[in-house]
Amino acid sequence: MDEHTPNDAEVQTVIGEWHSLIHDNFYECSPEMFKGLGDMYVSDQRFTRNIDQYGEGLAEFMRDAMHIYSDNFPE
User: Fold this and answer.
1) Predicted local confidence at residue 8, as pLDDT
2) CB-based contacts of 12-16 (< 8 A; 24+ apart in sequence)
3) Which residue ranges make up each domain of the chain?
4) Which of 25, 38, 39, 44 has its CA 20 to 30 A from that of 57?
5) CA-closest candidate to residue 70, choices 25, 34, 28, 17
6) Count of other CB atoms within 10 angstroms of residue 44
7) Residue 47 has pLDDT above 80, yes or no
8) Fold designation for 9-71
């Protein structure tokens, strides 16, 4: 996170893997739903606290990357 931006190819690859993990193992996760999930990571402090334990600002970083991924979702 400290060396990348949310739109970096490497970050987008990892976020794509995150989407696949959710979609393949938990529920059908459309691009719109994935974007909303990213929003929830920031708007719900329970999610923010949990995610940010791995790095301050990680929830926002993930949200931004998830938005980019969803806006450019591979068809």
Assistant:
1) 97
2) 12/65, 12/68, 12/69, 12/72, 15/62, 15/65, 15/66, 15/68, 15/69, 16/69, 16/74
3) 9-71
4) 25
5) 34
6) 12
7) yes
8) Globin-like (1.10.490)
